[in-house]
Design goal:
The chain is an alpha+beta fold. It has eleven helices and 14 strands. The protein starts with a strand and ends in a 7-residue tail after the last helix. Bound molecules: zinc ion.
């Protein structure tokens, strides 16, 4: 899936209509979720049937395009399946029991309920929610796209306004010129002291923007809290402060971090033919209070996803290896050399090999990766949707 994103500037009455469509989609989602909770064991068919009955019962649900209602049900299904999966895999910690949504930020149409204008610079929503015609602002030219390739249309609200996203079914590999093999392979270790160290001896320092932005973020958060009135309706000034906070949050949490990990991932993929990394349980790591800040800073799981995505796009191999003893073993002779987290240098008493702790680990990861080539599962296309990820990560828990 490819996402084309456009900014839109809806008029006040159009904003009302968009909000109403988002609310309806949220209503369907929450109703279907309730139905699943109350009726143990109901599956896909019953959930879709229940959706149909909702459309008969409520006029405002009927007004929303039927496919848009379906995507709301699909989102519940996805959440339910993820929950079952987590239980089956017995992942440590919370299993992610599906929750009701309170502040939905988007509504998603499929192939109906909208129409592009002749010159493809406007989109009209044709269901009975009355959103009407929106001008698509952005540099992407839709004239090069076949309408059948547009599989989803999403209207999305962020702290800085409204967006329309089109998901296109294109293979990312179609748009790439073949690149010459680099004849290099690399292993990478995610550090605490660094963002990552690789087996070629390079170090990528941790990005510091989060901590820098944090001060400003805290200031804005305090300003917001000061204006909060418990048990009373909130003032205009409170809402103003809240919006400023949300904007800052959007900038720090999403845009800067995403750009950073994307850049590092692309560089690694372009300069190597094989990239091996550790299959880390980020959840478990973030729980460790002392480490958590640098791990979330670094956005490790986002980084992995971009790595897999670019690997797929450029026809390179990415491998996740099991992170067992990678930092303890000696990459030169394979003997185990116990060390604590604070030991920064690997010194092997068996073969006298000396190396930086993280680079030694990266070498081990590369060795493991090379020994598993051929047994790997490659990324299935369509599972990764970079901008949907972005949307999720920027849903600051404040409705705007
Ligand atoms: Zn050794």
């Amino acid at each position: 899936m490819f996402i084309y994103e456009f900014k839109v500037n809806p008029k006040p009455q159009e904003i009302l209509a968009i909000k109403e469509a988002i609310r309806t989609s949220q209503f369907v989602r929450n109703k279907v979720l309730r139905f699943w909770m109350d009726n143990r064991g109901v599956g896909k068919t019953e959930m879709f049937r229940y959706n149909t009955s909702l459309r008969k019962e409520f006029k405002f649900v009927e007004d929303l395009n039927s496919h848009a209602c379906q995507t709301a049900v699909e989102r519940v299904l996805k959440a339910v399946n993820r929950f079952y999966d987590n239980c089956k895999k017995q992942i440590p910690g919370k299993k992610g029991y599906p929750k009701f949504k309170k502040y939905s930020r988007s509504v998603e149409y499929k192939v109906s309920g909208w129409k592009l204008s002749e010159n493809r610079k406007h989109i009209t929503f044709t269901d009975k929610k009355g959103i009407g015609n929106l001008k698509l602002i952005g540099s992407r030219d839709l004239n090069f796209v076949a309408i059948e390739q547009i599989k989803r249309v999403r209207i999305l609200r962020r702290a800085d306004g409204y967006y329309v996203q089109l998901s296109l079914q294109l293979d990312p590999r179609d748009t790439v010129l073949p690149i010459t093999p680099s004849q290099k392979a690399v292993g990478i270790d995610v550090g605490i002291k660094y963002f990552l160290a690789d087996s070629q001896g390079n170090i990528e320092p941790n990005p510091q923007f989060y901590r820098q932005g944090e001060q400003q973020l805290n200031r804005r958060n305090r300003r917001k809290s000061k204006k909060y009135r418990q048990g009373k309706p909130q003032s205009q000034n409170y809402h103003k402060a809240r919006c400023l906070y949300a904007l800052k949050h959007l900038k720090v949490s999403t845009i800067q971090r995403e750009e950073f990990v994307k850049r590092v991932a692309l560089r690694l993929i372009k300069s190597n033919d094989l990239v091996a990394y550790e299959d880390l349980n980020v959840k478990g790591m973030v729980k460790n209070r002392h480490l958590s800040k640098s791990i979330t800073d670094a956005g490790w799981s986002k980084f992995r996803r971009w790595l897999d995505y670019f690997g797929y796009k450029y026809g390179k191999i990415t491998i996740a290896v099991f992170p067992y003893n990678t930092s303890q073993n000696c990459s030169n002779c394979g003997e185990k050399v116990q060390k604590s987290l604070s030991t920064r240098t690997h010194i092997c008493p068996h073969c006298n090999y000396v190396e930086d702790r993280d680079i030694n680990a990266a070498l081990n990861i590369l060795q493991k990766g090379l020994s598993t080539v051929g047994h790997t599962e490659s990324l299935k296309l369509g599972e990764f949707d970079p901008l949907a990820e972005l949307e999720q990560s920027c849903s600051v828990k404040i409705g705007l």
